[in-house]
Amino acid sequence: MKRVLIIDGYVDEPSGLGVPPYLSPYPRMIWGAMLESGVECEYRTIDHWRRDGFASLPDASHLVLLGGAIVPGKYLRTMPASMKEFASISGEFRKRSGKMSILTGPVARFLHPSLDVDHVLSRDADAFLFDLFSKAAGEDRWRTQEEWERWSERGAAMVAKHPDFPNPLIAEIELMRSCVRYVNGGCSFCTETMYGIPKFRDEASIVKEIATMDSLGLKNFRLGMISCTFTYKATGVGESETPAPNPTAWKKLLEGIRSSSSPRVLHTDNANPAVMMKNVEATREVLKLLVQHCTAGNVLSMGLESADPHVTKVNRLNTTPDEVREAVRLVNEYGRERGENGMPKLLPGINLISGLDGETKSTFDHNFRFLKSILDEDLWVRRINIRQAAAWRREFDAYHPREFRRFKERVREEIDREMLKRTVPEGTVLRNVFMELKMGGLNYGRQIGSYPILVGVPYSTPLDRFVDLTVTGHGPRSLTGVEFPFPINTAPFSAIKALPGIGEKRAARIFRARPLENEAAIRECLDDPAVADRILPLVEVR
Length: 542
Description:
Elements: E1 3-13, E2 16-17, E3 22-23, H1 25-37, E4 40-45, H2 46-52, E5 62-69, H3 83-95, E6 100-104, H4 106-111, E7 119-120, H5 125-135, H6 145-154, E8 170-174, E9 176-177, E10 199-200, H7 203-216, E11 220-224, H8 247-260, E12 265-267, E13 270-271, H9 273-278, H10 280-293, E14 298-305, H11 309-314, H12 321-335, E15 346-354, H13 361-376, E16 383-388, H14 401-423, E17 429-439, E18 442-446, E19 454-457, E20 466-474, E21 478-483, E22 486-487, H15 493-497, H16 503-513, H17 519-525, H18 529-535, E23 539-540
Parallel strand pairs: 1-4, 1-5, 3-8, 5-6, 6-7, 8-11, 11-12, 13-14, 14-15, 15-16, 19-21, 22-23
Antiparallel strand pairs: 1-2, 9-10, 17-18, 17-20, 18-19, 20-21
């Protein structure tokens, strides 16, 4: 028997998302390679194993353990696999007389763990397995450009095997490998340049890959796995670390996707402000295309990393606070308009990293002043990501835990909350929020896309469905909302109490007076006309 079993332990990288609801390209590439070699392939997630152990896993001759959270984040429903979990799986697999076990993904590439497996692959598992079955000997190598395109297209059908298919699953589409800054080693902390000379996917092949998934019923896509969106097929790669964006390639790609598929969500990935500001006119053309063809709620995450000029210099960061501010202005110029789902069409994100070489206590003052300047200018930013430098590429020892914690808390309270109030004000109707999780007295949902905002509904409502929600409150990193339009005559008491300005006593008066036949009846229940004015746009009377 020849059967490959993929256990997806989830990946999270600087340029790629793979923790549910995101699906990385890695398992899809293996699936495509196995289809081409004529070998049966099965796909399961680490959560299958967590829930049911080996009882949920099919027999296989070859086991592939895939994982690696290079940029770990906060996850809503699950967590990436741990080495302890992989060790348990590989140990049990040996007992079941499996022929070969393989560890792959960022965890194998950068951590080189000690694990009881036959192969720890630092390159592409799909290429290794293809050689193993077609040539009887596997080689730890990179796939060729032709294999990249073929296996991406063939492996697209694997999406139907994911437990989140078709919703809220979002497929991460690989546009590029490596970073244009490979010419000087790139940022001190980042692993992207370690892939060598940049390579790009072909537009027509990406269009075919998405069309296949679209035909199966998946409608959510993220054009990712790229260190800077504006460097896709850029002019001057290898000659400059700020090559010129290629609007022609983006036009071909985006128009091709729109002509062959009908995505519900189409979002993008990172953006390098230095590339943007060194090539402003080409950047404008790409921004126009992204706003025209992608869907609202899209985010371009910008890696400032530090506003301290000394930290910038010693860590080879290639963008300055002034460049980031200008890039944020540019994206705001084109992307602030609110789209059909209630979110601005395209906003920037800002990434900051603590613990880099040269950091001092004053570094946090530099960073806060920069963020405050963005807020004071009324520039909109979708998210501010603050994290600690991880030792995947090298060790960092400049970490200041107390100052880091204080800085992060201050940003959340003084910057993030106010930014959310501006970008998603009270009364905004967020369309197609997928309700995912019940925890305590709250239900939580998110729109599908890049870095969607978490919305808590303060009463019980069914999960695994799409709802429209009205924003009623703002936390530092999340929102509170109620269903829109709000069914005031049938909603439970706990839901009425959650309406803005209502509370226990007013909810009781509304509850006792039901059924309410019109707006006047609602006003009669309330002792404050201002409160009535707040809730009347939210409710329906029927």
